[in-house]
Amino acid sequence: MSAMIQFQNVSKCYPGNIVAVQDVSLSISQGEFVFLSGPSGAGKSTLLKMIAAIERPDTGTLTVNGQEIGQLKPAGIPYLRRNLGLILQKQNLLPDRTILANVMLPMLVTGTPKDEADSRARAALEKVDLAHRAEAFSPTLSEGEQQRVAVARAIVNRPQIILADEPTANLDRANANKVIDAITFFQSAGVTCVISTHDEQLFGKADRIVFLNQGKIDHIEQPMNGKQA
Ligand SMILES: Nc1ncnc2c1ncn2[C@@H]1O[C@H](COP(=O)(O)OP(=O)(O)OP(=O)(O)O)[C@@H](O)[C@H]1O
């Protein structure tokens, strides 16, 4: 399978000489489900931010869907992001719009006709088991339900890649599983998923778990066959 995301000897420092990522080489195939794990400060969020071109590598090359992030011109960023579904710990749902309107928003921004946006948003809410709350406002939803809305919002534009930064932090087991199961549903349809997590109980659901420590890859596990790479 072709590489959807390829880090080659990538390093990244923040101002003040803070080394966040050090010489990381990692190839993620199209349709793969990868968890990034490791202690706080290990560099998980920084890797995700570089894939989304929120940060750029200082050295090395990072290629996402055929585009080299370090060479990306400002005009190329919306195109890259159009193919990414981002799920963050805090979802930033608009509190004064319905759940349906929140999920429709990314499609309306990219010019999808309203009727189509409406039906695709309802279908996405169905997938995260929230179709019955379409007309509700986000402050009336539990944190777990809001996170599932964020999953629906991230996938409505049919991205090729889903990036999630600790999407199950602060959720109880049942809600954490629902969030991951919703993401897994889209991954089974061929979407590449890269998710940072501390939650070891989720590890069995991934193709690979990349353990980071102090900005470097410590080791990689493949839970399906128990092999260590
Ligand atoms: N904007 C920033 N400016 C300066 N330093 C930063 C910035 N963002 C992250 N860092 C530092 O870079 C290192 C890697 O941080 P990063 O957020 O990637 O780690 P993480 O593995 O995602 O941690 P956590 O599990 O706590 O979210 C840390 O030392 C962090 O303090």
Brief characterization of the structure:
The protein is of the alpha/beta class and about 230 residues long. It has 6 helices and 11 strands.
Descriptive terms for the model:
229 residues; alpha/beta; 2 domains; seven-stranded mixed β-sheet; 11 strands; 30% helix; binds adenosine-5'-triphosphate; ATP hydrolysis activity; transport; P-loop_NTPase
Describe this structure in words.
- With 229 residues, the chain is α/β, with parallel strands linked by helices.
- The protein has 2 domains: 148 residues, 3-Layer(aba) Sandwich (Rossmann fold), CATH 3.40.50; 69 residues.
- 30% of the residues lie in helices and 29% in strands.
- It contains 6 helices and 11 strands.
- A 7-stranded mixed β-sheet has the order 6-7-8-3-9-10-11, with helices on both faces.
- Strand 9 and strand 10 form a beta hairpin.
- Helix 3 packs across helix 4 and helix 5 packs parallel to helix 6.
- The longest helix has 16 residues.
- The protein is globular and about 45 Å long.
- The C terminus is likely disordered.
- The structure holds adenosine-5'-triphosphate.
What is the topological layout?
Layout: E1 3-14, E2 18-29, E3 33-37, H1 44-51, E4 59-64, E5 67-68, H2 77-82, E6 84-87, H3 99-109, H4 114-127, H5 143-155, E7 161-165, H6 173-188, E8 192-196, E9 208-213, E10 216-222, E11 227-228
Parallel strand pairs: 3-8, 3-9, 6-7, 7-8
Antiparallel strand pairs: 1-2, 1-4, 4-5, 9-10, 10-11
Helix pairs in contact: 3-4, 3-5, 4-5, 5-6
Bound molecules: adenosine-5'-triphosphate.
H/E element order? EEEHEEHEHHHEHEEEE
- State the CATH topology of the largest domain: Rossmann fold
Separate helix tally: 6
The assigned CATH architecture of the largest domain is 3-Layer(aba) Sandwich
Question: What is the highest CATH level, the class of the largest domain?
Answer: Alpha Beta
Structural class: alpha/beta
State Rg.
17 Å
Shape: globular
- Classified in CATH, the superfamily of the largest domain is P-loop containing nucleotide triphosphate hydrolases
Helix fraction bin: 25-40%
For the biggest β-sheet, the strand order reads 6-7-8-3-9-10-11
Distinct small molecules bound, one entry per kind: adenosine-5'-triphosphate
Q: Strand share of the residues?
A: 25-35%
Which spans of ≥5 residues are poorly predicted at pLDDT below 50? Answer: 225-229
Number of strands: 11
Average residue pLDDT: 91
Compute the separation of the termini in Å. Answer: 18 Å
Total discrete domains: 2
* Largest sheet entry: 7 strands, mixed
